[in-house]
Amino acid sequence: MYESREHLQTLTEIRSLMERSSKFLSLSGLSGVSAGIVALIGATVVYMRLRTDVFDLLSYQQLDLYDNADHQEIRSFLVTVAIVVLVMALLSGSYFTIRKAKRQGLSVWNASSKRMIWALAVPLITGGIVCLALLHYNLLWLSFPTTLIFYGLALLNGSKYTVRDVESLAYCEIILGLLSLFWPGYNLLTWAVGFGVLHIAYGLTMYYKYERNTA
Amino acid sequence: MKDLLAQFNKAFESKARLNIMSVLMVNDSMSFNAFKELLGLTDGNLATHLRALEESGYVAVQKQFIGRKPNTTYSATDAGRQAFSDHLTALEEFIRNM
């Protein structure tokens, strides 16, 4: 009986090593929370600037009312906000993940994190270029669901190299993005839910599931 | 019982060697330093185990330079993969028959 337990333990250890060596598990839940907060702030800034009814914001008809100069201005405003939100979310997200890796005594820049970043980057950059094209043709409202859909696809791709739970977040983002396509009046709202609320909910779930005891 | 134990591979008697092989089963290749971090072994200890696995023909070594720094990576050979999965099967059988 004693020997059997020893062999079982060996199998458990092998399983854990296989997982630890092939996946990036230092991704912190707090990274999700901070990215979500940054996104909510960004959405609020856009809402305040455009000062339209939240349920009617950026609908196709609404944007038709603006003339070309307005379009130009709104476009550069949205691009600026989007870039600031992206950079801030990445910075704060990286901070918490690096902190977690340090506490675990692991390096952040290893084979598995490189694989994860590459898996995330390809769909994300593709989506970014698609959005630039949409903006180029003045299809502002379409760029909101597009960011959600491509972000979801990026997460789905990256989830293979990190905690499995990212997969659920990915499906939520994709579904929300697709719904948003057929619901053009609610673009800013769905965007805020996708990048803000979902990130915060996911981050808190991760934090309580994996980190509360070790933090 | 003796029959089952005969299936256990001598090369994997040490836990460190079994651990090295499990890492190489899911990673195409792994550097010496990555092993060190993952398994928490000392340089000398790790090198001895890796050399033993190399001599059994279960692990292949690739030496190259990144700039001027030597970088040694290890990967599992086909024989190593086969031996590892046979060993796991034997472990499973053993537990099932207890």
From TrEMBL, chain A:
UniProt keyword annotation of Transmembrane present: yes
Protein name: Uncharacterized protein
Keyword line: Membrane, Transmembrane, Transmembrane helix
Bilayer-spanning residue ranges: 24-48, 74-96, 117-135, 141-159, 166-183, 189-208
Highest classification ranks of the organism: Bacteria, Pseudomonadati, Bacteroidota, Cytophagia, Cytophagales
This protein's record includes keyword Transmembrane helix: yes
From TrEMBL, chain B:
Alphabetized Pfam families for the sequence: HTH_34
Signal peptide (UniProt feature, chain positions): none
Superkingdom, taxonomy of origin: Bacteria
GO biological process: regulation of DNA-templated transcription
Domain (Winged helix DNA-binding): residue spans on this chain: 17-95
PANTHER family registered for this protein in UniProt: BSL7504 PROTEIN (PTHR37318:SF1)
Protein's recorded name: Transcriptional regulator
Organism in which the protein naturally occurs: Spirosoma terrae
Lineage of the species this protein comes from: Bacteria, Pseudomonadati, Bacteroidota, Cytophagia, Cytophagales
